[in-house]
Design a protein that fits this description.
The chain is an alpha/beta fold. The protein has a domain at 4-113 and 174-208: P-loop containing nucleotide triphosphate hydrolases (Rossmann fold, 3-Layer(aba) Sandwich). Helices cover 45% and strands 15% of the residues. It contains nine helices and seven strands, in the order E-H-E-H-H-H-E-H-E-H-E-E-H-H-E-H. It has helices spanning 16-27, 34-43, 47-57, 64-75, 93-99, 115-123, 161-175, 178-181, 195-208, and strands at 4-9, 31-33, 83-87, 107-112, 125-127, 134-136, 186-190. A five-stranded parallel sheet has the order 2-3-1-4-7. A two-stranded antiparallel sheet has the order 5-6. A hairpin with a 6-residue loop joins strand 5 (125-127) and strand 6 (134-136). Helix 2 packs across helix 4 (64-75) and helix 6 runs antiparallel to helix 7 (161-175). The protein is globular, with a radius of gyration of 18 Å. It starts with a strand and ends with a helix. Bound molecules: zinc ion.
Amino acid sequence: MKKLILFIMGPQGSGKDTQAELLSKEFKIPTFSAGGLLRDEIKRRSPLSDEINSYISKGFIVPTRIIYQLIMNKINQPECERGFILNGYPRNKEQAEAIKGKIEPTFVILLDIPDKIAIERISHRMICPKCGRVYTVKDPNKDNYCEVCHVKLVRRDDDKEEIIKKRLELYHKETEPLKEIYKDKLLIIDGTKSVKEVFNDIKNKITKK
Ligand SMILES: [Zn+2]
């Protein structure tokens, strides 16, 4: 099989991380995100990490050129020889322009879900403050506990409704227009179905083409 390069797009709550993991296992290619690469770089205390930290500590967004450099370093590693999955990137036109001609996706997977469902899903998401495991709970207003640590789960600040709404707005304004740029490679997937159904839909479309 030739090199498989997948981009995964979709709003928060559309299941990007879950599907990226499943696809990574299925096609035996690594998956990574811009946020993950930034965290790895900081952990490794690389020469770039001081510069990255200087932005993050001041609450600034890390510039596109730095993220671009991290992505290029990553995809030139032997583990990416057969392909890779870029999860949640590019997120806007500037980022798409930066990689144009350098990284050409085989497919761009768009996990499509209505805002209402995104909000509903995220509002049921809770996290263990001790181990960081993420759970989807039936009732977020009830006491819910981590299966491993037996600690009471909490909501993340990022998952509060106003913040979710702002992020969804940003997604519609900045990320959704990328559909036009990638229209020849776009696979629009109904993200409201179960994890397994969504995965099968993606897999079928990739292997058929
Ligand atoms: Zn825990």
